Write the structure tokens for this entry.
Amino acid sequence: MSEDLPPVQAAVPSVDRLMRLPPVQALIATYGRASVADAVRGNLAALRERLTLRGRDALPEASEGAIVARLEMTLEAESRQAPGPVFNLTGTVLHTNLGRAPLPPEAIEAMARVSEGASNLEYDLTRGRRGDRESYLEGWLCRLTGAEAASVVNNNAAAVLLALNTLALRKEVVVSRGELIEIGDSFRMPDLMARSGCKLREVGTTNRTHLRDYEDAIGPRTSLIMKVHTSNYVVEGFTATVGEKELASVAHGQGLALIVDLGSGTLVDLGRYGLPHEPTATESLANGADLVTFSGDKLLGGPQAGIILGRKPLIAKLRRNPMKRALRVDKMTVAALGSVLGLYADPDRLPQRLPALRDLTRPAAEIEALARRLMGPLSDRLSAIATVKLVPCQSQIGSGALPGKRLASVALAIQPKGGKAGRPSLTRIASAFRALPKPVIGRAREDAYLFDLRCLDDEAGFVAQLANLPSKWRARP
Ligand SMILES: *Cc1c(COP(=O)(O)O)cnc(C)c1O
């Protein structure tokens, strides 16, 4: 330590010295030398700042024991950033930030089996030669939807990219202004079209587009008409859109193709399970769409994937595009999607077997019974800081499916109250639940933090870990 440092700063141990301590060596064995060295440097920088600000008062924080304890916390918090399970009590069933559709056990097992070792991913076991990774999925997709052909890529954005790049490179694609969607912060239809190498030809206005708008826009450079399902918003009031049937007849009359991006897209009519009707891929094909694209992990309830259905010659063209290779799915997706599609063979049992559909169709009475059982343990655990109430609420489907439609549900509302232990803010309460071994994610509403119980299946696991909340949050009897 150099002489001109203020005396308090001299208390800061060196990085080298800390790195050699046995408890830090143990951290290195767990987290790796580079992460621990970063954490040590960050910790020491913060310590120096506190010493400058608070002088001798901050000296206890400079002891090796205190530094090691802080390092352990930092590294443990960082490791929690690795993807892991959480309780989704946000009330949004297909939550993009929380990984969208939960997979059924069959699909998880299928993924595990192909991941363990070699598999017949691209090997034809009948003929004993090279096979195709898509043919199994294509068989299922065609049987379930009546499509002539099918292809599967990494996600629906990739499906749109591949379709446009293959069929409309350096040509015009006619789209309604009312359908130029943005989903999340990184998927904007106009940007994607530009990157796929085609030129967007916008027609109509935000709220109204007529058949003649499409007809007027078609010229020698037009290659496609595209219809995009407005996934995450509803245009209400004075509106007009052109249906798929009419668009198909205009497109086909001019020798063009109609492609429909369904976004969520389903393989069955959700109306049969008491849910609002969402356009199915089969309907779009029957209406004359030449290609239909949708996601595997939205309403379909499978792994992340982009599904493309449609006419055989068009699908064949897509397959020949070199981009296809860059967008293809891996064996785990093939295995999981194959297994989920298999469940669709028996649509009557789907709500019991497909977790996404089970959550979406869970009766409000069942959710309410669950809320009543959890009320006691939760309000007891928070008795010093909050009241817990059972409140009716509305779940959302999420991922842009059925925008504007809500599902009746029940939530537990945590309302902070004053008391000996203080009155923690909603932010503080939310962060304590996120810090649990299996983080719990709810949603804040004005004066309460809400747990919508629609997607809670592990009731016992939820209750057991309440013990890890701050002990002063429970009133002493
Ligand atoms: C969600 C969505 C997409 C993007 O799908 P990903 O599978 O997330 O890539 C594209 N178009 C529409 C209409 C969507 O709703």
About this structure: The radius of gyration is 28 Å. Residues 436 and 468 are 7 Å apart (CA to CA).
